[in-house]
Amino acid sequence: MDEVFDITVNGVGHTVSCAPDTALLWVLRGDVGLTGTRYGCGAGSCGACTVLLDGEPVHSCDTPMWSLGTRAVVTVEGLGAPGAPHPVQRAILEEQAGQCGYCLSGIVVTAAALVDSGADLDARAIRTALDGHLCRCGAHNRIVRAVARAAGVPDREEGRR
Ligand code: FES
Ligand code: FES
After folding, report:
1. Cβ of 135 less than 6 Å from ligand 2
2. Number of the ligand closest to the Cα of 39
3. pTM of the prediction?
4. Residue 30 falls within a domain, yes or no?
């Protein structure tokens, strides 16, 4: 039986009605109308569906609505706008890091959380943070380069060529 959920997405409140075990991904795409969050594996293995819940990256494909509670959702659309992109979004464009782009929504969300965390980053920390994100185009190195650019750090680990 459907239940009613009040959720906040990118700072805007929405009331949706769905079965409690509906994945957040489908609510975002189907009810809220934000299709930037992608369906990849549906099993928590590829990272394409990543969104932020209270600032923490999570897989929206395996986040049932009943588990959301009061946590605020931020999707890739909420990170920036075409005229005012997030530094990670800008760097992805400047480095021409995307190929087909399917993986990028999730990667940008995770990378933005990392860059915005204020942590002392290096190339290894960036690679580790993005480890769970699959890119079938093999654009990993360009993506890491872009995130490093956004973070203002070198894109290579010491001793790595
Ligand atoms: S679609 Fe969610 S992790 Fe792959
Ligand atoms: S750019 Fe195509 S899957 Fe990553």
Report:
1. yes
2. 1
3. 0.94
4. yes
